[in-house]
Specification:
Blueprint: E1 2-3, H1 7-20, E2 30-36, E3 39-46, E4 49-54, E5 62-66, H2 68-75, H3 81-86, E6 90-94, H4 96-101, H5 103-112, H6 114-118, E7 120-121
């Protein structure tokens, strides 16, 4: 089992995302940063593909912030990200239009992570 958001978890997510062949449309670059408590990681989509890395993103379009418990609930499908934002449980900074423009790409990335989620230990 992979500990959620551990270095090993991020490496598995990275391998899955790279293998997926997902790319940003028309050579664009789209970066999303996630801050989960003290853990920071990001996803980048561009003409070279998609990847996940630890640490902050360079020029993210959007930065999401949430607690560990909320991130786990979203990742396990117990809470939708949209509902969490509307409830104030997830905050974000950046360009909301970028989220709308790339919503299908993000949804496909979530599908790619299904196997990683299936082998994840969600306890801290």
């Amino acid at each position: 089992m992979l500990e959620y958001l551990s270095d090993e978890w991020i490496q598995e997510a990275e391998a899955a995302l790279r293998a997926s062949g997902l790319r940003a449309p028309d050579g664009e670059r789209f970066a999303v940063e996630q801050q989960v408590g003290e853990v920071v990681f990001h996803m980048v989509f561009d003409e070279e593909g998609a990847r996940v890395s630890s640490g902050p993103a360079t020029e993210p379009a959007v930065v999401f912030c949430q607690s560990w418990d909320i991130a786990v609930a979203i990742a396990q499908g117990e809470l939708s990200a949209e509902e969490a934002v509307l409830n104030g449980e997830v905050t974000f900074e950046g360009d909301p239009m970028a989220l709308l423009t790339h919503r299908r790409l993000l949804a496909k990335a979530e599908d790619v992570f299904a196997n990683v989620r299936a082998s994840t230990d969600w306890d801290r």
